[in-house]
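Entry type: protein chain
Record version: 2
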Amino acid sequence: MIKQNNKNTDPNYTADSIQSLEGIEHIRLRPSMYIGDVGIRGLHHLVYEVIDNSVDESLAGFCNKIWVTIGKDGYITVLDNGRGIPIDIHKKEGISALEVVMTKIGAGGKFDKNSYKISGGLHGVGISCVNALSQKLIVTIYRDRKIYRQEYLKGKAVYPVKLLGKTDMRGTKIHYIVDHDIFQYTKYKFEIIANRLKELSFLNKGLHLFLIDEKNYTKKHFFSKNGLKEYLLILNKNQNPLTRDTLFIEGEKNNTRVEVAMLYNSSFQEKIYSYVNNINTFEGGTHITGFRRSLTRTLKKYTESYSRFSHNKEKIEFTGDDFREGLTAIVSVRITHPQFEGQTKTKLSNHEVGGVVDKIVGKAFHIFLEEHPSDRKKIIDKIILSAKARQAARKARELIQKKNPLVNSILPGKLSDCSSNNPEHCEIYLVEGDSAGGTAKQGRDRKFQAILPLRGKILNVEKSVQYKIFENEEIKNIFTSLGVTIGTDEYQKVLNVQKLRYNKIIIMTDADIDGSHIATLILTLFFRYMRPLIENGHIYIATPPLYFIRKGPHHQYAWNEKERNHIIDQFGGDRKLMNIQRYKGLGEMNADQLWETTMNPKKRTLRKVHIENYSKADKTFSILMGDEVPPRRHFIEKNAIYANIDV
């Protein structure tokens, strides 16, 4: 039962508040243009679009509860206690405002400055996109003490808005099932939606979010009283805090609302989580540039004092990276007219926002440092150590930072390069061990496949200072072989991938625990220092078989226990007549077998690495590869059931 919110119905939120831009026919024809894909991500993106509409009501101050239900029948239901979408006739369109919202791209109160000062769902698709891609959608409005309903099939209204009766409730309920002819994947993941609701609860303190899974009888309630401060402690719980107090900053200027939570830890990583109107802008933007600039300017005053009074003859030059090493921060801004680079809304481009964030954060951070001398000393000491370590790393980094890796840099002697010079057609295998590397060299196609053997387990970059990372021989070989260079500017680390020598970078390790560990170490290196290679779709993991089964002149390979048993049944079931070999490592295969199963583009299976959720990936790497043992043990115990462990 949804009671009336404490605020009265907004008399200004009427049909005139709804602006219509265009129709939705193109959405069904080209759905991936609007939601990214028609797989699991696109499926859940629709849920987020509906939830965002309800959260917009919360941002406007008219909603404090949202219910999301995953139905047994495949329906999704999102219910809020907001104002309810207007149902009166739209003057321009000649139909109800509700139907305009549901059937026109870019139609909605968020395009009218009097309806929503702040809005997250500004893709220009929103609920109309959900409607267009649904087999059936029913919207129920609780407004002005009346109940209204309208039904849609594949985005088209079945009947005009109906008045059903009276009510004391208030809000909007969207009940829909996606079109199975469009979506390849139609099963909702409870945890994916739960993670988004959890995130929204921290970004919107005081908002109650409920998630119900009718099929599995699961319920969760998300609510945060302290918002970003509480969120920061969760994100930082696997680190050793350097400062005693968490700094929380909030302020508003020129219709830009800024909230920042930040603290320092003993790690060597900078982790900044950025949001604009509840949207995770993982590529940053002007608000992050302003935040970093304020930190650099504020802390520079203290480090300059150190340099003047230091008796050490060695001059220390500080950069923005030094000031942010070990920093974990959440930067959330709310603005009236956000502008983003590209349709993905992952990088804010409003220039005026950077100055607002800079001023608000700079002033508050200065006061914090003055009032917390103990924390200030710890931060400055870490900055000095960071600067010294960076200077030590500079010489090591120069070894892999040549302008032209093909001409000026000597390729590693262990690299067996391919003959083709066209990166688009070339691929490199990072192979565990010299023995497997030798087999791979014999089995490869020399025209387009290069092999780089790696000696044992590479350095764990999660627990190492930068200069040790760039002094590591195996890591230097990886950088030099790939042709990428790494450097820094004042505000962000830059990876130059313009001269990347291979379109596919394939990690090939043994199918055992050690092999998985080595693959994880390599992925940690890519995630922490070469993330654009993952984001641009260059990183893959090879899938060697686990079993070789032969009976007489016939043989087959199996990649898991189920396949092995199926092949045994096909061959007659009598194991005494079969040769069943369990591959413990790549080196146990001969060159022809490795080519046939793992390297031949016509037959092999490659697993492409992509980042589904940056925050979750970052947290997982910190747990698995960081210093803290208890979180890692808990993670392993929780996820051991999903591991394929050969006992």
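Comment: The chain has 20 helices and 24 strands.
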